[in-house]
Amino acid sequence: MSDGEIKKVDKDTGRLTIKHGPLENLGMPGMTMVFGVKDMSALDVLKAGDKIKFVAEKLEGRYVVTQLAVQE
Ligand SMILES: [Cu+2]
Questions:
Q1: Residue 26: φ, ψ to 5°
Q2: Tell me: the pLDDT tens digits for 47-59?
Q3: Ligand 1 mean position to 43 CA, how many Å?
């Protein structure tokens, strides 16, 4: 899993803005960007500032968070 910090939760569009470290499975360096989410219920428990561990995959041309855990 990769490290990230939630910057914005958009329940209307089902998207998360995440400041992330390197995503090795996607060959992506650290940056801040918008992701879709596989499990929309995650949007109800996340808030800006949360530190997370997550996995993102490229599905049908868009980046989607497929696994996510909030760090205590
Ligand atoms: Cu990125």
A1: -110, 0
A2: 999 999 999 999 9
A3: 19
